[in-house]
Amino acid sequence: MKIALAQLNYHIGNFENNTNKIVEHIQLAKSKGADLVVFAELAVCGYPPRDYLEFDEFIALCEDAAQKIAKSCMDIACIIGLPVKNDILDGKDLFNAAYFIENGKVKAVTKKALLPTYDVFDEYRYFEPASSFSCIDFKGKKIALTICEDLWNINDNPLYVSNPMDELIKEQPDLMINIAASPFSYTHDDERIKVLADNAKKYNLPVFYVNQVGAQTEIIFDGGSLVFDADGAMKAEMKYFEEDLQVFDLNEVENVKNKYPQPERLTDIEQIHDALILGIKDYFEKSGFKRAVLGLSGGIDSAVVCALACRALGAENVMSVLMPSKFSSDHSIQDALDLVKNIGCQHEIIAIKEVAEAFDHILAPAFEGLPFNLTEENIQARIRGVINMAMSNKFGYILLNTSNKSECAVGYGTLYGDMCGAIGVIGDVYKTQVFELARYINKEKEIIPVNTIVKPPSAELRPDQKDSDSLPDYDTLDRILYQHIERKKGSKAIIEQGFDEELVKKIIKMVNVAEFKRYQTPPILRVSPKAFGMGRRMPIVGKHQI
Fold first, then answer.
1. Listed residue (321, 283, 280, 275) closest to 302, CA to CA
2. Cα–Cα distance between 167 and 162 in angstroms, integer?
3. Distance (Å, rounded) from C-alpha 221 to C-alpha 234?
4. Cis peptide bond prior to 173, omega within 30° of 0
5. N or C: where does the chain have the smaller number of CB atoms within 10 Å of the terminal CB?
6. Maximal C-alpha separation, the chain
7. Is the dihedral of CA 404, 409, 413, 416 positive or negative?
8. CA angle 20-70-39, nearest 5°?
9. What is the pLDDT of residue 409?
10. Rounded Cα distance, 522 and 541, in Å
11. Is 78 a residue of the active site?
12. Residue 222: what are its φ and ψ, rounded to 5°?
């Protein structure tokens, strides 16, 4: 049996696009001699469809698309993921399911049992968990087909009725196929490989795993589809961050050692870089936009976002707006201009000194006798936000937000100012990682000016301002934030690691107090195991200071 894994980029709710893409790859797999071609979880509608699933019309369109796909599936079989109705009407209205299609007809339906409800997942909101499981007979082989989480062996959730593979193995299958929508984080590839290898060894069966690729707003899928033999040895690792289709001979997977070449694994920063480019590119393409605008300050955050946007969209489609104030240093303006020259994007210089002075003048009576403080600093940031949005409206640009994760965490940003934007490009990238990204972007030649990388970070909203005036050094801050956000450690546990008690409590208080700001920020491209947004849901008015 020859099995094709089709690792594709789907578009949520774009049935015409998804159907055509699936049909095209059925024919491509057939031309390569495949007997079976496998597509990802909820491939027909795209993942995650969220509350689209509550509309009967949406479910009907899924079924219509599946039937069109079935008609094209002749002289080859395919597996596609889609939501299907729960005809028994006991529990939720839908199952997260997969169709096994052969010679134009749906021959078998597999339903997902283990419905994840953690982090970015909320599948139990929509789907009923499956409670019965059967293998699929095809070309003299028994296929144990599972859907994503069903091969992750999570048994401690009371919502999970049973472990599908523990039931399927009773039928003595010859191989396992798992279709997935497994979101990217820079730590997830190693975890995914281990889980699948462990399952191959546990059940003593080869595993064919197909993931999807592409970004759906903040969630990014990295591909990296995998094949393992029954000993848990990896036989193939497909491309990351790219569509891919490869055909594998089951006999060779079972019996031939080192048959397939494996790509060199990417470092964390390389993965983050590629994921962010894919995230920007898909956000624009799937939203129907082409051009981006961002404020370019001469600092490292906006420089990195500008470089990533140019790589994703083309420099000709990126507008950077330099908005110097009376506090802007000459070197920051020059650093921004040097970046523009190096990268070739469009730019405008719009000074805000006069606008800020106008605000000072009209607010003078109300502020009489009060000193310059954070208020005036925020007014400057909001002036820049207004100008960026004006450029967006006038020319049809989409505004990119340039706030990093460290700033988002502690609230070091201005609502309706530098926190404006349609998509947060580096909001899940700590400041220390932003520096690594800058150096990686410069690995072949200088794109981001060296001075931008080496100078002390500053918002330049008051004379001689530095980030270190308000925050601890970023190396210390980021290590504490990582323990609190990604590792879910409270202040006591972090202090026990050797961090200063007063500093830890101050930082965690800042994180908690800034929650109301994060609720009003744009969606953030998720690259870490725990990003702000849909995967981290904290109460705004919670009293407990963890």
1. 321
2. 8
3. 20
4. no
5. C
6. 87
7. positive
8. 60
9. 96
10. 20
11. no
12. -100, 0
| Helix intervals (H) in 396-537 | 405-410, 431-441, 450-454, 474-485, 491-495, 501-513, 515-518
What amino acid is encoded at 246 in this protein? Answer: Q
Would you say residue 154 has pLDDT above 90? no
pLDDT > 90: what percent of the chain?
86
Catalytic residue among 30, 112, 489, 517: 112
Provide the pLDDT for residue 90: 77
Question: Exposed, middle or buried by CB within 10 Å (0-12, 13-18, 19+), for 67?
Answer: middle
What is d(CA 168, CA 143) in angstroms, rounded to the nearest whole number?
9
Structure-block tokens of residue 49 = 């469809």
Residue 301 in this model has a pLDDT that exceeds 90: yes
Q: For 93-97, 153-157, 328-332, 443-447, which range has the lowest pLDDT when averaged over its residues?
A: 153-157
Tokens for 538, please give them.
């904290």
- Per the residue annotation, which of 2, 41, 128, 408 is the catalytic one? 41
pLDDT in tens, 385-409: 999 999 999 999 999 999 999 999 9
Would residue 41 show up in a list of annotated catalytic residues for this protein? Answer: yes
DSSP one-letter string for 471-498: S--HHHHHHHHHHHHTS---HHHHHTTT
φ/ψ of residue 70, rounded to 5: -60, -40
Give the C-alpha separation, 344 to 126, whole Å.
47
What's the one-letter identity of residue 11? H
Q: What is the mean pLDDT of residues 333-353?
A: 96
Predicted local distance difference test score (pLDDT) of residue 91: 84
pTM of the model: 0.94
Task: Output the six-digit token pair for 316.
Answer: 């000709």
Cα–Cα nearest to 350, from 373, 371, 332, 325 = 325
Q: Catalytic: which of 62, 73, 148, 420?
A: 148
Model pLDDT for residues 405-441, shown as the tens digit of each residue: 999 999 999 999 999 999 999 999 999 999 999 999 9
Catalytic: 112?
Answer: yes
pLDDT higher than threshold 80 for residue 274: yes
d(CA 394, CA 424): 21
Tokens coding 292: 């981006």
